[in-house]
Each structure stands twice: as C-alpha cells, then as structure tokens.
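2024-03-11 09:14:02 INFO worker-7 job=invfold-0412 stage=load source=structure_tokens
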C-alpha cells in the first residue's frame, strides 16, 4: 500500500510539471470509492481536458472541434478514440461518477500515452529545442483584384517572374540550411564527451561561452529553465519505471466498479445525457461526411510533430553527424508513410461500417 501512495504522488507531480494539473493523491483515493468531496469530479474533468487537448493536436486533419465546452470536448475525443464504456458518455460536470472518470483517465494513460505526449510538447517548446526549427510553415497567398485585371500575357510574365524568385529563395534556403548544419556539426565536434553527453547543443554552448565571458540575468534565467526541464525529465523517467504499480492498483478500482454496477437502477438523466451526446455525434459525422463530399482535395492542414533528436541516440562514425541524422530522419519518414497508408485503409473500412450504423442513431 505504501508503494501505491508513493507512485500516485509521483504521478501527481508528473502531471503538475507536464500540464500544471492541480490533481492531488487524495483525489485518487476518493475516486476509488466513488466519492465527490474536495471537488474530485471537477478535478478529474479538468485533467482529462488538459491531457485530451495535448493529445488531440496529434490527430491529423484537425477533426476535433473547439466550439464546445470542456466536458463535451473530452467526450468527443474519447468517442473518436472509440472508448468502449457507454456510461462515460452519460456523465456531466454537475452529476458524474468520480470512479468512472478515474477509469477513463487510466485508459487514456495506458492506450494513448497522453502524459508522455504532454511531456514531449513541453520539451519541444522549451529552450532544449532551439537547435531545431519547424520548416512546415504554410502561408496562404491570395490573388489581388489588380492581378485579376491583368492580361493573359502580363499574368504569364508575372508567373515567370515569381517562379524565378521562388527558385532563388529555395537556393538561398538550401545554402543557409547547409551552412547551419556545418556550424552545428562543428559545435558538436568541439564538445564531444562533455558532461557525460555525446556533445552539447548550440544553445548550451552559447550559454557556456557567455558565462565564461560575462554572466547576465538572461543566462541565469535560462539555466533555471534547464534545471526545471531536468526535473521534469527526471520525474517522468521515475514515473515510467513505476507506472505498472499504478495500473495494478487500477485493477482493484475496476473490481469496485463492477460491484457497484450490480442492481444499479437506470437514471433518466443519464439516458437523456446519452441521447444528447449520440445526437451531437451523429450531427458531427454527417457534417464531416458532407465536407468530404465537397472537398476537391485532402486538406494539407495536418498536425506536424517536430521531434527533437536525442543526443544519446546519435553515434559518431566516419560520416558527419548531420549526414547520419538526415539518413535517420529519411528512414523514419518512410516508416511513417507506410504506417499512414495502413491507417488510411483501416479508416476507410471503419468509415464504411459507421455509414451503415448512421440510420440506427437516435432521432430527435
């Protein structure tokens, strides 16, 4: 029992550092016995929303809507993930089962690895990721009324001129990228086997140089941020090594839930809440199907995950580190493309099944 207390306390600390959650170990104990003191239900809905918001950004196509309240958003996200517990969709903010929410929280951690996703996003947006840039920035170009009034010959000449500018910019960008890779490789080569790491990052080298010459307040702030990130990573590593204890404890929570479901009377409010959610889900499905029919091409607004390459995974060889890194990225891209194709085939099959079920949804 003492182990589970320490593990839950570690989980709460990890959640607090990842998404600034206010969940306390006492809430887990109260949820096991389905009690709602100390705002347990509200805190569980809050952490489900925080984790769902982080994980939802990983879904391509931006299928989840932000026009709904937090509780509805969480239900839609779980429905998209096909969470197979109808009782969960009958819950509301003012009338909910804390034990049911705890089970949903554990399912989200176990199947979607939501906490690790939140940690990755925190690291990717920190100073540790300054060495890596996101090249997937899209800009929409609108044709002005003046350009529409040009003659065909003038428009063709303008297109040729713009194409020349684009080719020049692409060449300049490639030269800058190659120069950046060369300078980054030099910085890595100059700091091999420093602080028990294969090398230091560019930002770390810059901080070290400035500290050696002139210590400033901004550098002290950056060092403090690095200490905080180190604490986040240390806590998460400890949680990953102890998470199996938490899920063993969740088995006892599920057993308590099964006992409470015996001779449980049907609640009219729960039926109404479920009917509302089914109607909402049916409306969203019909809207998405309508959009698919009227779109000429697949939207390119896909969520892009920019992963920072761990220095501990890099190896020194006869090739430069940049070449080794690029070859690894290429292999990862090919693997993700193959996986995406398989997922698209699976989604097509699931969509056909959903279309057959739509006529049987609740009618209002």
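2024-03-11 09:14:09 INFO worker-7 stage=emit residues=364
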């Amino acid at each position: 029992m003492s182990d589970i207390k320490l593990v839950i306390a570690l989980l709460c600390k990890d959640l607090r550092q990842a998404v600034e959650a206010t969940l306390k170990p006492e809430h887990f104990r109260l949820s096991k016995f389905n009690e709602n003191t100390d705002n347990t239900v509200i805190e569980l809905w809050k952490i489900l929303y925080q984790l769902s918001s982080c994980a939802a950004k990983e879904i391509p196509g931006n299928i989840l809507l932000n026009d709904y309240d937090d509780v509805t958003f969480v239900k839609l996200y779980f429905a998209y993930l096909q969470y197979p517990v109808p009782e969960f969709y009958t819950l509301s903010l003012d009338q909910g089962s804390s034990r049911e929410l705890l089970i949903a929280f554990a399912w989200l951690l176990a199947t979607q690895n939501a906490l690790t996703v939140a940690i990755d996003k925190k690291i990717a947006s920190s100073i540790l990721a300054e060495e890596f840039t996101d090249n997937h920035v899209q800009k929409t170009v609108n044709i002005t009324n003046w350009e529409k009034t040009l003659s065909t010959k003038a428009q063709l000449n303008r297109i040729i001129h713009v194409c020349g500018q684009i080719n020049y910019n692409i060449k300049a960008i490639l030269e800058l990228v190659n120069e950046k890779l060369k300078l980054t490789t030099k910085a890595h080569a100059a700091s091999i086997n420093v602080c028990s790491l294969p090398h230091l990052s560019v930002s770390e080298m810059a901080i070290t140089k400035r500290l050696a010459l002139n210590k400033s307040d901004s550098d002290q702030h950056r060092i403090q941020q690095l200490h905080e990130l180190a604490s986040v990573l240390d806590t998460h590593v400890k949680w990953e090594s102890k998470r199996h204890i938490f899920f063993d404890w969740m088995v006892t929570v599920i057993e308590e839930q099964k006992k409470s479901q015996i001779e449980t009377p049907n609640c009219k409010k729960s039926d109404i809440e479920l009917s509302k959610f089914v109607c909402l889900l049916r409306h969203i499905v019909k809207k998405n199907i309508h959009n698919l029919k009227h779109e000429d091409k697949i939207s390119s607004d896909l969520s892009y995950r920019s992963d920072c390459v761990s220095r501990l995974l890099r190896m020194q060889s006869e090739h430069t580190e940049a070449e080794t890194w690029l070859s690894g990225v290429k292999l990862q891209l090919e693997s993700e493309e193959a996986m995406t194709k398989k997922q698209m085939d699976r989604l097509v099959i699931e969509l056909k099944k959903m279309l057959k079920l739509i006529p049987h949804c609740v009618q209002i």
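2024-03-11 09:14:09 INFO worker-7 stage=report msg="The longest helix spans residues 217-260."
2024-03-11 09:14:10 INFO worker-7 job finished
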